[in-house]
Amino acid sequence: MSMFYRSTRDDNVKVTASQAILKGLAADGGLFVPESIPSLDKSLEELSKMNYKEVAYEVMKLMLDDFTEEELKSCIDRAYDSKFDTEEMTPLVKVENEYFLELFHGATIAFKDMALSILPHLLTTSAKKNNVKNEIVILTATSGDTGKAALAGFANVPGTKIIVFYPKNGVSPIQEKQMVTQKGDNTYVIGIKGNFDDAQTGVKNIFSDKELEKVMNDAGFQFSSANSINIGRLVPQIVYYVYAYAKLLANGEIKDGEKINVVVPTGNFGNILAAFYAKNMGLPINKFICASNENKVLYDFFTTGEYDRNREFVLTTSPSMDILISSNLERLIYRIAGNNAAKNAELMASLKSKGKYKITDDMKAQLADFYGNYATEAEDAATIKKIYEDCGYVIDTHTSVAATVYDKYRKETGDTTKTVIASTASPYKFTRSVMNAIDSKYDSMGDFELVDELSKISNVKVPNAIEEIRTAPVLHDLIRCVMKLRRFLESNIIRK
Length: 496
Description:
The chain is α/β, with parallel strands linked by helices. It has a domain of 249 residues: Rossmann fold (3-Layer(aba) Sandwich). The chain is built from 22 helices and 16 strands. Helix 1 packs across helix 6, helix 4 runs antiparallel to helix 6 and helix 11 packs across helix 12.
């Protein structure tokens, strides 16, 4: 049976997986969602005997069923190779009674690597399958991690250009250095005067600009996206939750069929949505614990049923979560609205015009598996310090948000279910914030002095992703306001 994808805003839009990957975003502004979510066709016991690449194939073949076995395995083999610093890809580290799923062992030391290592291969394969002749221009807004991972994935990939927009003052120094030093003749990096939501809105506006689309097509280009609005970015994220469960089973930490909890620090909701899809495929998950920082729009949503972005935007030490428009939440809203595109479109229109929407009581009742809470800046720092002092384990500021919220959940509910915490970034990406949390004496050190000090206290070798940017020259120094993004495309892509 073929898998088709529909737009969350128009029931009449129906495409294959490869077409959805190529488009990135539906023409009506909606996101592509599967008509139905397939069940895993391998038992959990069988999956527990597989390595990461094998699990990836078993999951992705179901969601991307217009790819042949040869095509999909080729994409997987090229993605999950020596660029990862561990054979396991996503080690599961037990710290006291929690399991930290380390998703940061790829080329850019953040969880986005797990999807953005394979997306370029999925995209170029999709282009061939659909006889696309145009050059594909990847537009990506980033709150820090997606940008570098997308740049690294698409750098010098034939038939593509990659343009990353990031908030100029809204990422860590290491995150920015990773992006602006990126090599590749097809790479472009632009600092935006504004926050991540401004960058994301700018990208969505470009996608919905029909006049620009025609101009681009006439010039031999078409747009796609590397953000998690692209289903080709989201599907690979399902894999590591299945793999984590399989590892727990293989290690004797749980019994076959035993439910687990999953804790995810999130701003854009894609990473926790992937866990939700995993459950719908048959993974035994009890609770999805949605962890927010002080930009707690998701916590308020799960608490009240109202999504309201009309609030102060807070710059925090977990900048990849500094988001007030959680794009991927739309996929969940569509689902709890009974896959009703018209209802979802109505709510998204309200978000655009009023900055908020409220779901019905019936819709809210379907969110019983979700728990939301948030961590303040002080709580975030305190958790980093406590885990280091108690266990010698160093976590980053985003993972600490998750650990803080999980502690609140456990105390509030008394739930002792085995729990996996998504560790979404290496502490090396946020050295100043991490080291200051451990001891304020580190504040006087330079960024790379802190890197070396972190290596000493953690007994973890400095990742290549950090070593290679110590002395790398800045190659991208453009700063633009959102209103001038179209002008940039016209002068630097179309007319170049």
